[in-house]
Amino acid sequence: MIIGGPALTKYNDRTLRNLTTAPASATSSPGALVHIKTITASSDATISFVNGSSDVVLDNTYPIYKFEIINVHPSVDNRDFDFNVSIDTGSNYNVAKTTAYHYVYNNESNGVDSSASAGTEYISGNDLANGTGFQEIMENVGGDNDQAGTGEMWLFNPSSTTFVKHFMLKTISASANNYSKNAYLAGYANTTSAVDAVQFKFNGLASADIDTGKIKLYGIKDS
Fold first, then answer.
1. Phi, psi of 146, rounded to the nearest 5 degrees
2. What is the four-CA torsion angle of 158, 161, 164, 167, rounded to 10 degrees?
3. pLDDT score recorded for residue 130
4. What do you get for the CA distance between the two ends of the chain, in Å?
5. What was the pLDDT predicted at 111?
6. Mapping DSSP to helix (H, G, I), strand (E, B) and coil, where does residue 111 land?
7. Quick one: which H or E segment has residue 110?
8. d(CA 133, CA 128)
9. Phi, psi torsion values for 25, nearest 5 degrees
10. For residue 180, which phi and psi values (nearest 5 degrees)?
11. What pLDDT sits at residue 26?
């Protein structure tokens, strides 16, 4: 028995004699998630995905795009990880965005019952209200050798010239002051122009390189 394989379809002799095309249930179909590009950082100031550049696809090929952020580590301690989008293939990352940000946190030296070191919080200072700056998606990421941040971002219908461009993110990071911070962010890029580039970088009190880490871009097929 093959576990997890396609469902078996049983045919009798007459059915097989008249069969010209196998039904969909008897054939395997490609997965809905299509890998487009992986960028691995090595002391880079930014990671950018620009449609049409370096094999990146970020257009109407897919209705949804997914970014997987894997163990991004700053070159300097206590830095925020941010993103922005572009409508001119990366010449400018300054699209107006409206967002809502909150996170759950806990300190490694205290239990979950300690109200001073664990809880959930809405961070109005991390929101944007039609702001054009970079949007924070992880805060205070630590620079210790064992600290980094990871997450996922979904960008919906970026090539639409009718609607604003919605996005959602969830991230988890080890902060400089030894907190685990699980952040949730959602919002929209307030433009009816096609979004054709996305950039990620560390920021904060001062900029920092992405010392190590990688980001993967996937396209999700229409159903």
1. -100, 10
2. -10
3. 97
4. 29
5. 57
6. coil
7. none
8. 8
9. -65, -20
10. -90, 120
11. 38
Residue that has been written with the tokens 């190590």 in this structure: 212
- Stated as kind and residue range, the H or E segment containing 14 is helix 13-18
Per the document, the length of the chain is 223
pLDDT score, position 17: 53
**Counts of helices then strands in the chain (DSSP H, E):** 1, 13
- Domains (range + CATH), the chain: 32-220 (2.60.120)
C-alpha separations of 64 from 23, 33, 92, 101, 158 in Å: 28, 10, 22, 21, 8
Report pLDDT digits (tens) over 13-31: 554 455 454 444 433 345 6
Beta-carbon count within 10 A of 214 CB: 16
Tell me what pLDDT residue 65 has. 98
Mapped onto helix, strand or coil, the DSSP state of residue 54 is coil
Three-state DSSP class for residue 25: helix
**pLDDT > 90 fraction of the chain, expressed in percent and rounded:** 74
Determine the Cα–Cα distance for residues 200 and 222; give it in Å rounded to an integer: 26
Neighbours of 84 (CB within 10 A): 21
- The confidence score (pLDDT) of residue 199 equals 98
Spans of the chain below 50 pLDDT: 1-2, 11, 15-16, 19, 21-29, 113
Q: Are strands 165-174 and 149-156 parallel, antiparallel or unpaired?
A: antiparallel
